[in-house]
Design a protein that fits this description.
174 residues; alpha/beta; five-stranded parallel beta sheet; two-stranded parallel ribbon; 7 strands; 37% helix
Length: 174
């Protein structure tokens, strides 16, 4: 190809190392996505009104088991210490053994089409976006999860990969 468009700097750098001119064009949400998000914000009950706190992680591929394993022990500690916390896990994610003692507070969702996934995310109090660190593959992933949650007004807790470090400021927007 004559040039490569990438959503993150690590992807552009990989193309450049191959001798291909590369340019970063960040992910964004289009008019349709923003319209659906706006409708969901207006029709979904506000977050935090219930006594329970709902943490949500919605995976998109079978590769996310390795990413989720990064936070499973911390989530087990949170579930042990906070009886009002519930966890919703979606997609192809396999059950993690660290969460077995709290299965009654862990809801499973199937892999969903985008608009249904967004509707499920809309009922979360906090979205989780774990990624393995020091892995070129995960460091090349974009911040699209943050964009989707942000359009719904939901905070994101994310691993500090390159893309998330560029947009998230602890205590301000993530």
């Amino acid at each position: 190809c004559d040039a490569f468009l990438a959503t993150t700097e690590p992807l552009a750098a990989a193309a450049a190392r191959s001798g291909i001119p590369a340019f970063v064009v960040r992910n964004g949400l289009g008019e349709r996505e923003l319209s659906v998000s706006e409708m969901l914000r207006k029709t979904t009950p506000p977050h935090g009104r219930g006594e329970d706190v709902v943490l949500t992680y919605l995976s998109g591929t079978t590769m996310h088991d390795l990413d989720f394993a990064v936070i499973a022990p911390a989530l087990a500690s949170v579930l042990a210490a906070r009886p009002k916390v519930r966890l919703r896990l979606g997609g192809h994610l396999l059950p993690h053994p660290a969460l077995a003692p709290w299965q009654d507070r862990v809801a499973r969702l199937p892999f969903l089409p985008w608009h249904e996934m967004l509707a499920e995310l809309a009922v979360a109090d906090v979205q989780l976006a774990p990624l393995r660190l020091d892995d070129p593959f995960t460091d090349a992933k974009s911040e699209v999860k943050y964009l989707e949650a942000g359009a719904l007004g939901i905070p994101t807790i994310a691993s500090p990969t390159d893309a998330f470090r560029r947009i998230l400021r602890h205590g301000e927007n993530g």
